[in-house]
């Protein structure tokens, strides 16, 4: 079967410092979907983006017929329907759902590593300054005004440092986030010692979700130094994921399990516990919540971004509930039970309507 050919070029509004933008760009490159990369660095470009975006956020993908799509995962799901060749879904219900679970883990929990190490950590002063200047250079491209670029960098840095609190960075959570980053690197380093991608010889949905965040970490001063020093295979994988190419088939779950299950049992379980506590806090109208994550207490206020996290958890639970009954579902449930995640994915409580 020949590859489906897009009728015309897609337009992707994004930013190089946005993990979700580079995630979608990497995906479009892998799928060989022609696209134009657009940065909102002028009044005209901002106005153009507003025509298609329901929210003033990137990424926004504009289709040839003028439809604006937002939110990285739904964008990729829609493109998979339109262009099924080079599928990013491993065969079988077990691997497919675990790939979806790891993608969500990357999008929602991995973002905490990136934001914390870039903007909040006591050791990240240089990281935040360097990134703010880099982001300002992209936004001010074409402008020779150095003073204006410096002002943009200062404003951007101040705004993003405040936003780090909304993803959970504070003095209580800092040790949890920093430990999680290092442990995830170590687990991925071992897993990638035998394969170029998370599920074998071609990238899966999980690769795009995790690499979106980790590619940002790779490019930052503090997080990147830690990665290159302690997880060189992960650093190489990040570089490859900027423009990935298939090298062969997906592996069977039985060959992936020895090194992926430990990641699920330690880090993904933390994410699901946090996400469940967040959803319950929203449902009950709490202003903040505290949850035990692996023996350490996580304390966080409940703000606007947490509504999106609750919505994402609800969607993940929907996908798990949709796995057909039978031998594969039984196998998947056994894996999740071993990893301490099954109950968190079958919770009866519904998050607040969003």
UniProtKB/TrEMBL annotation:
Domain GST N-terminal: 8-87
GO CC terms in record: cytoplasm
Ranges in coiled-coil conformation: none
Annotated protein name in UniProt: Glutathione S-transferase family protein
One Pfam match: GST_N_3
InterPro entries (alphabetical): Glutathione-S-Trfase_C_sf (IPR036282), Glutathione_S-Trfase_N (IPR004045), Mito_Protein_Transport_Metaxin (IPR050931), Thioredoxin-like_sf (IPR036249)
């Amino acid at each position: 079967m020949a590859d489906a050919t897009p009728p015309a070029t897609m337009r992707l509004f994004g930013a190089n410092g946005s993990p979700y933008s580079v995630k979608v760009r990497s995906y479009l490159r892998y799928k060989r979907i022609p696209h134009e990369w657009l940065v909102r660095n002028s009044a005209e470009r901002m106005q153009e983006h507003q025509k298609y975006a329901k929210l003033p956020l990137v990424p926004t993908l504009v289709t040839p017929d003028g439809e604006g799509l937002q939110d990285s995962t739904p964008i990729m799901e829609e493109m998979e329907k339109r262009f099924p060749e080079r599928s990013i879904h491993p065969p079988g219900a077990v691997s497919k759902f675990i790939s979806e679970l790891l993608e969500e883990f990357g999008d929602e929990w991995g973002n905490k590593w990136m934001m914390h190490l870039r903007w909040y950590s006591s050791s990240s002063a240089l990281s935040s300054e360097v990134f703010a200047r880099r982001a300002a250079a992209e936004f001010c491209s074409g402008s020779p005004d150095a003073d204006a670029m410096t002002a943009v960098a200062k404003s951007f840095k101040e705004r993003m440092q405040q936003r780090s609190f909304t993803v959970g960075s504070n003095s209580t959570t800092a040790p949890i986030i920093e430990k999680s980053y290092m442990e995830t690197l170590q687990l991925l380093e071992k897993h990638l010692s035998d394969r170029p991608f998370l599920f074998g010889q071609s990238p899966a949905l999980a690769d795009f979700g995790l690499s979106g965040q980790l590619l940002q970490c790779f490019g930052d001063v503090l997080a990147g130094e830690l990665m290159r020093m302690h997880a060189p295979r992960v650093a190489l994988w990040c570089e490859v994921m900027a423009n990935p190419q298939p090298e062969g088939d997906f592996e069977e779950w039985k060959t992936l399990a020895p090194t992926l299950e430990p990641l699920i049992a330690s880090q993904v379980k933390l994410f699901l516990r946090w996400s469940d506590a967040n959803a319950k806090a929203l449902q009950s109208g709490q202003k903040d919540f505290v949850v035990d994550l692996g023996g350490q207490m996580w304390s966080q206020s409940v703000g606007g971004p947490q509504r999106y996290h609750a919505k994402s958890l609800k969607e993940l639970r929907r996908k798990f509930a949709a796995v057909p009954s039978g031998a594969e579902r039984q196998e998947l449930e056994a894996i999740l039970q071993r990893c301490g995640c099954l109950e968190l994915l079958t919770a009866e409580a519904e998050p607040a309507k969003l």
